[in-house]
């Protein structure tokens, strides 16, 4: 059976805005923004970047980043993404950037993280992983503006113990 | 028709964790953590608190706070909640606290905000709204631990232009 799912836009009783409702079963889906977590990970003076093996932006470089899952903290989610995409173990530190993208209802929380050793490998969603010096970062092949902003802000607060997150939207 | 909705726990093809699937229509629901936004709002040396008119914690006091909605930034969501619950207009400033509650898959982002004037009123989800001096805050009747933590941290960073968010979980 082909799933139809919640595809009808209507305001449910007692609500004040449109929600998606399933025409088959009547289920009301409360859609809310999604949280994306990730980390700018460093080992000494080098940066851990992954080349995306999946769309969107397949083939472009990013810090490890992905959807936060149920039952984890934001820091645990960031460390999990680093493990899944780059097979590296990190200690997650302060929040570097908080970026709202209201057009697609996402909130990106990118942390600063320190690699516990210099081991890494490509996970299933990565074409390759690299530990790069600042000058070797492929600036023209970054997946999103937030990658550059988060890398640059990490460099700005390097050695600073406590710092405000860079707010972007 | 009584909605059944996505109630069957199963791992969809190509996925690596259980999701809820609708037994009627086959729709797969990707559940992710929800973002709660709010603000500790001040007018001069007083704090804007609302008494909850809805469960959970009906009758207890909190800063204005609620689910982030689609199509807004975190700051816009915080200002919207302040308007809906306390009918006050604010300028949202830095991120005060970021609290993960993995047990219920929520991320709370509480901002510092300055009221633009001293007008306020109870919105439909509030029993009453008050602008209280620090000593008049009903410390024994606060709705959640995060309310106290956010209020105390606001006081700690008062007058400080840029500060790291307090991280809690």
Explain what you see:
- The structure is a homodimer of 169-residue chains.
- Chain A is mainly beta and 169 residues long.
- Chain A has two domains: 1-31, Ubiquitin Ligase Nedd4, Chain: W (Single Sheet); 34-159, Nucleoside Triphosphate Pyrophosphohydrolase (Alpha-Beta Complex).
- In chain A, 15% of the residues lie in helices and 39% in strands.
- Chain A is built from two helices and eleven strands; from the N terminus they run E-E-E-E-E-E-E-H-E-E-E-H-E.
- Chain A has helices spanning 74-86, 145-156, and strands at residues 6-10, 19-22, 28-29, 34-43, 46-52, 61-62, 65-67, 90-101, 106-115, 126-133, 166-168.
- In chain A, the strands form two sheets. In chain A, strands 4, 5, 6, 7, 8, 9, 10 and 11 form an eight-stranded mixed beta sheet that branches. Chain A has a three-stranded antiparallel beta sheet with strand order 1-2-3, with no helix packed on it.
- In chain A, a hairpin with an 8-residue loop joins strand 5 (46-52) and strand 6 (61-62).
- The radius of gyration of chain A is 18 Å and the shape is elongated.
- The N and C termini of chain A lie far apart (40 Å).
- The mean pLDDT of chain A is 94.
- Chains A and B meet through strand 3, helix 1 and strand 8 of A and strand 3, helix 1 and strand 8 of B.
């Amino acid at each position: 059976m082909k799933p139809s799912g919640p595809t009808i836009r209507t305001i449910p009783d007692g609500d004040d805005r449109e929600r998606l409702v399933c025409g088959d079963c009547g289920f009301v889906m409360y859609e809310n923004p999604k949280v994306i977590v990730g980390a700018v990970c460093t080992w000494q003076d080098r940066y851990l970047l992954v080349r995306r093996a999946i769309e969107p932006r397949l083939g472009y470089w990013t810090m490890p980043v992905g959807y936060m899952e149920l039952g984890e903290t934001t820091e645990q989610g960031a460390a999990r993404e680093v493990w899944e995409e780059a097979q590296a173990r990190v200690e997650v530190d302060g929040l570097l950037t908080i970026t709202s993208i209201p057009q697609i209802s996402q909130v990106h929380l990118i942390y600063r993280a320190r690699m516990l050793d210099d081991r890494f490998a490509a996970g299933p969603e990565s074409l390759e992983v690299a530990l790069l010096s600042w000058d070797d970062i492929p600036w023209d092949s970054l997946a999103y503006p937030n990658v550059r902003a988060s890398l640059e802000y990490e460099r700005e607060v390097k050695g600073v113990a406590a710092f405000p997150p860079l707010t972007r939207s």
